[in-house]
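Batch manifest, entry 17 of 40.
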Amino acid sequence: MRTPQNPTPQPSRATPTALTPIDPEVLEGARSSAPSEALLSLVVTMFQALGDSTRLKILYALTRHTLCVRDLAILVGVSESAVSHQLRLLRDRRLVRQRRSGNSIYYSLDDEHLAVLFREAEYHADHVYQNLPPHPYVG
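Output type: structure tokens
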């Protein structure tokens, strides 16, 4: 098999450093207030964990109740093994915590931030699906 003598050149991509800003002051303000790469990495990891419907169902349930694996499996409609797998992933990302009581392990949210995030996501969904006016922000 022959290899071509002159391979087809790949198109070049413009790099951000090659661009001239339209509003340098605003750009610098946006740059100085941007989160660090480490923080962005944690946020991306959290949102990736939230990107699965089974995990989301588990987390929604845990916003209201502390539950064991079996009850979560019944609620979500998957096997106990599948719930345990998802809980391990959520625990590794510090979204849930566990507490042992006898032979059972009970799970709850690691903190209240996730419930607030869900509420904000629901407000956003209201805007998208029902064309509602802005909700007052409750922080």
